[in-house]
Amino acid sequence: QRRSLAPSQLAKRKAGDEDEEEEEEDWHPPTSRKRQKAASETGSGECYRSPFRKPLAQLTNRPHCLDSSQHEAFIRSILSKPFKVPIPNYKGPLGLRSLGVKRAGLRGPLHDPLEEGALVLYEPPVLSAHDQLKIDKDKAPVHVVVDPVLSRVLRPHQREGVKFLWDCVTSRRIPGSHGCIMADEMGLGKTLQCITLMWTLLRQSPDCKPEIEKALVVSPSSLVRNWYNEVEKWLGGRIQPLAIDGGSKEEIDRKLVGFMNQRGLRVPSPILIISYETFRLHAEVLQKGSVGLVICDEGHRLKNSENQTYQALNSLNTPRRVLISGTPIQNDLLEYFSLVHFVNSGILGTAQEFKRHFEMPILKGRDADASEAERHKGEERLKELISIVNRCLIRRTSDILSKYLPVKIEQVVCCRLTPLQTELYKNFLKQAKPVEELKEGKISVSSLSSITSLKKLCNHPALIYDKCVEEEEGFMGALDLFPAGYSTKSVEPQLSGKMLVLDYILAVTKSTSNDKVVLVSNYTQTLDLFEKLCRNRRYLYVRLDGTMSIKKRAKIVERFNSPSSPEFIFMLSSKAGGCGLNLIGANRLVMFDPDWNPANDEQAMARVWRDGQKKMCYIYRLLSTGTIEEKIFQRQTHKKALSSCVVDEEQDVERHFSLGELKELFTLSETTTSDTHDKIKCRRCVNGHQVRPPPDGSDCTSDLSQWHHCADKRGLQDSVLKAAWDAAVTFTFHHHSHEEQRGIP
């Protein structure tokens, strides 16, 4: 048997005897045609490698690498596909089905305008089929629809208010003017309407992009926290407002610079809430850039166009301005002009033009001694003013609330002076002689201090005891009138008619119900007396005045409103807490002394009768009979008549009092049961007793002559006041806000 050679042996033999001719044919492995061809090209004898073996790789430490071009191609294929949210039918906040991809086709509104209850602020014009073909699809306007989260909670009057505000700030009501005044009365939800406006402007417009990037809310310092809470409450974390209510100058500047530097579609903190005081001090930072919208809460602070706050706000680079004020007219028409001029400069001309064209004729026509021609001219100018202003001012009165709120009974209670108060009062009028200082109806400094002394005496003789000790002007020898051994350490309510009535009201309320009471006064000294009274009677109380920090205010208000809190009384300084506070935990409010400005009193009285109140409310306005307090109250009715004439457009506002001489302030009517009732010349009362009820349709917003008049306790509706009547009450005016409506939730 023949031995076959291994391939390597064969190769050696071939190399050894190349020229020898082999007799026998050796076995060759079958090779493919390609290999044969390759071998013939490279030369048959050069490759001695077996086709069955892989060549040995050179030993190195280099790692094996993938082909880079393959890897790049693979990554590109991943990135070319848009990211899809792995939730079926997902629709993001901008209405896109996938993130980062521009939606193809027609632009659409942010919310469905056809949804039930949708509040549509803007509807694009209906286009014919021909126009639809011509229009650029990327420029077609879309519906502006309020976020359903908010439109579901808006009441009918609030929906109307939001539409009005939006029309004004987008210049659809008055071309070229972007401002408006939201002058709804207290308790109608002005804050919610403005939050709805801000949220809509920050998210959408007919151009399918946000109308504004940033908004600024300026409010009294006590309401900064309240605004922050309201935004959180209604928008539920959809937006992060920035509230600044304290801190060092550097820290506040840093926050403001950060706020102003925000740009783009999605600004992290698009709403800045700041107090008037902080704004005034840091205005230059905010004036460097532009803000889309400015909202000024309690805007009647801007009634004086000369003050720094007004000028700082006016120099902001912001055409869209909303001014919120439940009481736009406070003292005169020129202040009213300042407010309108701030939001829409120029629509009433300059201040001089306004005074000449509107203010002078209107006031002349309203004077008691005006001629027929002057009266007619005044009415004409008033109509003209109302027609201009109504284009940028919306005002609804609290009548609307009657559907949602319990009945409010408002009572003006005249309280008899005690013998000590009467003697001190007469003594003062004899000695001080401020009447001689009144020249042509102008108040001098000394007569102003005399007014303050008389007001304090009406509250309680303890408030002027120090002046009696020092024998100041008007109080010479007055110390002898005080009872022997008198000390200001104890409160002694029996020395003041009003304090006596208050003591009864509190005692009867505490013993017969679980109602809570708010006590309001203009003087912190009077609040000190309330504290002494509460400690004597062991009533639990909280007190809020100008000395309390903003954060602490918010905490005590929250605690008092809780039904489980034991506090019975909330004491309030009308200057510190009159604006915007929500005290619905209480349903009885006592205004211990009147303010010259009716707006301050109305603000304070609206603390308890507002949205969220569940119980019937009782308001007590205490006045000392026949004194300066009744005169102040009468002067208030004149200012109020002016306000309702311009703002509420009420017809036939009866004005029973002429502007009144200041001399009259310094008189005392000892025999009257109510000087105010005497001045009204009431036709419904005979010998001081009411014989005809008030006219149908009248309520506590009507003129005082249309209220119930009670010279005794028989006609009273309030059992607490009935019980307190015999203490020192001489006369009461009372009326309700509306008839109680059964069956309305």
UniProtKB/TrEMBL annotation:
PROSITE patterns: HELICASE_ATP_BIND_1 (PS51192), HELICASE_CTER (PS51194). GO terms for molecular function: ATP binding; DNA translocase activity; helicase activity; hydrolase activity. The keyword Nucleotide-binding applies. It comes from the Eukaryota. Residues 500-654 form the Helicase C-terminal domain. Residues 171-346 form the Helicase ATP-binding domain. Residues 17-26 have a biased composition (Acidic residues). InterPro entries: Helicase_ATP-bd, Helicase_C-like, P-loop_NTPase, SNF2-like_sf, SNF2/RAD54-like_C, SNF2_N, SNF2_RAD54_helicase_repair. This is DNA repair and recombination protein RAD54-like. The lineage of its organism: Eukaryota, Metazoa, Chordata, Craniata, Vertebrata.
